[in-house]
Amino acid sequence: MGYVHAIAHTVGGFYGLPHGLANAIIMPHVLEYYGSAAEDRLAELADHIGIGAGARTPAEKFKLFIAYIRDRNEKMGIPRNIDKILDGDVPKMTSRALAEANPLYPVPRILFGEDLARLYAKIKGAPAA
Fold first, then answer.
1. Most buried pick, 34, 51, 75, 116, via CB within 10 A?
2. Cα separation of 40 and 51, whole Å?
3. Which of 85, 105, 82 is nearest to 94 (CA)?
4. Would you say 69 and 104 are in contact if contact means Cβ atoms under 8 Å apart?
């Protein structure tokens, strides 16, 4: 959750978005970005909350878990993206999020500046490059 939290701090600080809401929007993007580094842990969580039945691989359970989070967010009226993010703010937000998350938070995969820039674009809802 380290990068979720660090990114949420920057979005909240720059745009006044409440921290809990920012975390909820950002979480599925970051978990998906972790990819295979988070598969086993999220597969275990999928089994624990009862949504992993029928899935044969950790990768399938990983996808089910992220879909579950997105579905819960949608049911609570939480948006999928934060369209307020300005491209010009991304370098400073990236720098601040990295300073907070690396190495202070335990994460399944260490991310770098270019990773966070891609994540901010995904969180903003920008089309994939």
1. 116
2. 14
3. 85
4. no
Q: 24, 48 in Cβ contact below 8 A?
A: no
> Residues 6 or more apart from 118 whose CB is under 8 A from it?
33
Residue 88 is given by DSSP the state G
Confidence at residue 56, expressed as pLDDT on a 0 to 100 scale? 86
Cis? peptide before 18, omega within 30° of 0 = no
pLDDT score for 85: 97
Residue 98 to residue 2: CA distance in whole angstroms: 10
In Å, the largest CA–CA distance within the chain is: 45
* 102: helix, strand or coil: coil
Does position 129 have pLDDT exceeding 60, yes or no? Answer: no
**Alpha-helix runs per DSSP H in 49-112:** 58-75, 90-101
Single-letter amino acid code for the residue at 86? L
Looking at the predicted structure, is the pLDDT value of residue 43 above 80?
A: yes
Q: Which CATH superfamily is domain 2-124 in?
A: Dehydroquinate synthase-like - alpha domain (1.20.1090.10)
